[in-house]
Amino acid sequence: MTANTLYRLTHLSLAITLILTLITAIIALALPFFDEHLLSQWQIELANSAGPNEAELTANEWWIVKNQGMLTMQTSGVGLAISRAVTILLVGGLISYALYGLRGFFAGLRSERPFQASTPALLKKVGYSFIALAIVLYLEVPARFYLFIPDAADIADYYGTHIKVSPPAAEAFFIIPTLHWGLIVAGIFLLAIARAFALGLSLQTENDEII
C-alpha cells in the first residue's frame, strides 16, 4: 500500500471510530430509560469446580454459571449504564487518539522527506495511547466489580493481579483481569520507532546543514 492509501484508510477508520463510539455510548445511556435490564459479566476461575453448574447469589442480583466460567450481574440501574458509557468513551477516545496520530504519521510519509519534526511526537502519541488502552481495559474489570457488585468490599479481596471473592453462601472464586500484552508490546515498539525517527531527523538536519 502507498502512503496515500494508508492515509485515506486511517482517516476513514478515525471517522468511523468516532461515530460508533458516540452512538454506542448514547445507546448505553438510553437503555435504562426503556426498562431494559443491563448485564455485566466477569470471567472467573473457581476454587472448587464441584457442585451444580449454576449458583444463584444475593437474591438473583448476580449469579455464576460454572460450566462457562462466568459471573453475571443483572441490573436496571442508571449507574451501570453511565459506567459503561464512560468506558466506551475512554476506549473509543484512546483508539481515536491512536488513529489520529497514525493519520498524521502517514500524512508525513506522503512527502519526499519522511523524517519530519512532527513524526517522533506522532508516533509517541500512538505508542502511549496503546499502553494507556491496555491499562484502562485491565483496571476496568476490578473497578466495575467493586462499583456494582453488592457488598463487594466485604466479600472480596483485591491483590492487584486478581480478586478473590468469598460469598457467604457459595464457594470462593477468582476474577483475573486480562492484561493485553499485545497492546503494551505494540506501544513500546512504536516508542522505539519514534526514537529511531528522532535520530533520523537529527541526522537529516545535520546533512542539510552540511549541504
TrEMBL record:
Keywords: Membrane, Transmembrane, Transmembrane helix. The chain crosses the membrane at residues 12-34, 78-100, 121-139, 172-194. This is DUF2975 domain-containing protein. It comes from Arsukibacterium tuosuense.
